Description:
heterodimer, A: mainly alpha, 13 helices, about 75% helix, B: mainly alpha, three-stranded antiparallel beta sheet, two-stranded antiparallel sheet
Amino acid sequence: VRDVALAVARIALAAAAVAVAAQLLIAAAPGSPGERAARAAGILPPDDSAIPGALRADLVSRIEARFELDRPLAIRVAASIADLAGGDFGRSWASGRPVRGELARGARLTLPLIAAALVLAGLLGVAAAAVRGRARFAAAAAVSAALVAPPVWIGLLLLDAGAGGAPALAAVATLALLPAAVVAHHAAASLAALEASPWALAARARGVSERRLLWRYGSRELGAELAPLVPVLCGYLLGASMIVERVFGLRGLGALLADASGRGDAPVVVGVAVLAAVVVAVAGAAARALRRRCDPRPERHAS
Amino acid sequence: MQARRAGRARSIGAAVLLAFATAAVGADCLASDRPLALEIDGEICLLPNLFSCTAIGEARGDRISAALGHGDWALWPPLRHHPEAVRTAGELEILAPPSERHWLGTDDRGRDVLARLIHGARSSLRLAAIVAFGALVLGLALAAAGLAGSRAAAAAVAAVADLGAGLPVILLVVAAQGLLGLSLAAAALVLIAPRAADTARIAGAALGRALSSDYAAAARALGVGRAGLLWRHALPNAAPQLVAATAVTASTAVLAEIALSFLGFGTPPPAASWGELLAQALAHREAWWLLWPPGLCVAALAAALAFGRQSPGR
Lengths: 303, 314
């Protein structure tokens, strides 16, 4: 129970930190938030020198009242945290619709994409690490190539090869490439450590078969080694999905963020950033739980 | 054997990086529509591609060739195209495949792809240099403040490092630009913050280790002050870790610039960037000359950075 409470607190803290940083950035940006909201909504044109000052002030004050931007900064920050706690992400400056709905629509595409890429990367990576015999060199070469392959280019090449017919599959394959290479590196190290360990020798002496050794002991060893990678790879995948979604024309969180950012639609931008922080924090909590299950010893801190 | 192979990979990586850096620094002398030197009407101009020259004024490309009379000469760069020049000899060649005039073809505005490739290296490396320098200086300052006992500096480092560790930089930069408005300065700032925190963490540990060593105690006994101890003794000993951290910063920034320019949030147009070329390749799928050259360059750069980053003795 204590662990769960701690994990929830960590996730909430990450979301709150991003939200506060975002509110401070909104306040620090040039021009008043009301003006920028009016521009994002298309009420003020980008060049508003032709609009009389009184009309302009009236428009801006109306927008400020609508999005509650006329309150002091401290109140705005506190209100945004309180709203977030209730699951309310505010309204889009551009469309006026609740941000929550737009986030849900984007997440429905992007989160399964990332999860599938993570699973595929795990399978491919462990398989590449477990390959024995001659295929080993081919696997090592593939891992090295995948490690430096830029997702932009790989995606475009796949598109050229006719992968546009199944964009989601192609996106998952493009996303999984680099994580698979990272997993393969760590899995190879952990399997090598397993083979050299004294307890593997003891198990073999007791007549445990190689396959059983790998299943029974190797899976725990691998779980403990790979668990800390999950949040890091989740972060990478969230960033890379922006590019991959653009390449394959998918409308997920990445496209939502890029569009909102181009328009200056701050509430949507903040929503995506908070959601990303929550995803990474949840992945971190899951990784800690997985690691503790596989290896109950207290964490060794890397020197 | 393995050490030798790693050493060879490192030197190949370093050679590729050096080639890209040379292209970036010397872009104006490799690809320009103004000569490196010329003599016109008895007046000699040196490097009119970089500095203004009264004899030819603002003339470019074929207009200079046409103005050259008997006895005049001009020394041209290897590639006689400016990365932002839309017309070649007065003609508009849009999405032209590679030819004798345009070795790697032209883009959707008729600009020479090879010239944009060479100048695009500059966009990436310039941002990387700014971010690497900023993160190193800020990180060292925070580490020094932390060592001097500033709780606030240590807390700031821990908070930013924790928060920045998992979040993807591309997403953060695009988000920050949405909140602050499009600018490369905002991008640089967002790239610097998490890397500065990481550098501060690494520098703090390395400097602390050096300060608690026997030779630091000996220097202290000799009457060396705290600042002198940090500067003369601790900093040189922490140098390898600092170089490694800065290399990570630079490679993050280089690849981030390409990704951001692809998304339209990086180097502002009309300046050249590899990411922008790849974005054009997405819009014009039939133009393979927009896809392969920048793609291969990005892959070579990523590989060189990965090889070069393997520090010796690991």
